Amino acid sequence: MNVNQIRQDFPILQQQIHGKPLVYLDNAATTQKPQCVIDTVRHYYEADNANIHRGVHTLSERATAAYEDAREIIRAYFNAASTQEVIFTRGTTESINLVASAWGNANVKKGDEILITHMEHHSNIVPWQMLCQRTGASLKVVPMNDAGELRMDLFAKLLSERTKLVGVVHMSNALGTLNPIESIIQQAHAVGAKVLVDGAQAASHVAVDVQALDVDFYATSAHKMYGPTGVGVLIGKQAILAAMPPYQGGGDMILTVSFDKTRYNALPHKFEAGTPNIAGVIGFGAAIKYIQSIGLAAIASHEKGLLDYASVHAGVFDGLTPIGTAANKACVLSFVIKGVHPHDLGTILDREGVAIRAGHHCAMPVMQYYKVPATARASFAMYNTKNEIDALFSALAKARAIFA
Predict the structure, then answer these.
(1) Cβ–Cβ < 8 Å for 383, 340
(2) Domain stops at, among 292, 311, 343
């Protein structure tokens, strides 16, 4: 994998911040966009801008074709059984809310249980809390250990015939932990529970085959996969989606409307009310094709090398405590430095041209577990280099010296 050549595909990386070359290590928050994605979005607006599924004129037909081509690209990437299983949303958050509302309201009742984990992003906590408040169901939480790994022994004990759904993150955004979702899905199905996997962090780093996993719902976002913001996907089993009521009402999700009765559209359109983010979906397809052009295996190997290299540096950096040391993790290094608040670290590093994330990472229960207000997080992508990791630790040394 020619990283220098890949970096040329990302125009935003060719700049300086405060007179220093940009070192972008906030990829868990959002990835940068290659020129091919930028060009694809621009082409839609310059040449094909029209609404989809409704017009018979040339622009509408071209826009519709490009939109549905992207659906097939994404279906193939995740190996969904049909494009009817590929629902476009505004992102992972809306995908989870869709399931919690449309599936949850129809299937969860008082006395039932929803099981999530201690390392979930707020997007995979709050919708289930809201569902439990509406229905009288109970929310149960799978604990984790000090390494940031799920207590699978306790997961098995918490599962029961009352469990209606298990919500689990594939890869933790705050810790980098890769969870054993295959085993989780198998065990959940054994008691009759459905499983939703939050794949926002994982989908650009590891191969995901939804049919091999037998997962009921898989959600992810384009902007963490080198695609545009404001668009994501929910992949669900066709039979489950077909039985669910619509999430929202409006245009394109209907077949016929009268004041007496509305007949809903077929999948996937039943869950895509209103004019969607057409340019974003088309750009999402271009981003997937870009990932495929590099190859997930090559990307994963490169990112593992970066994480290993950064972990060695972290292990000998005086005053640094890593947060999250799971045996199976990917491309996230979270840490605290004694005597320096993570927000101060982030500010000082920015003056050195190094962009990291500092805060609770929308995972406050994780911070509460480790008894820290926040962590600093460096997260890596295919275009990062070992020289950039050197720049990170050089900047951290300057920050440590300031507060010494």
Answers:
(1) no
(2) 292
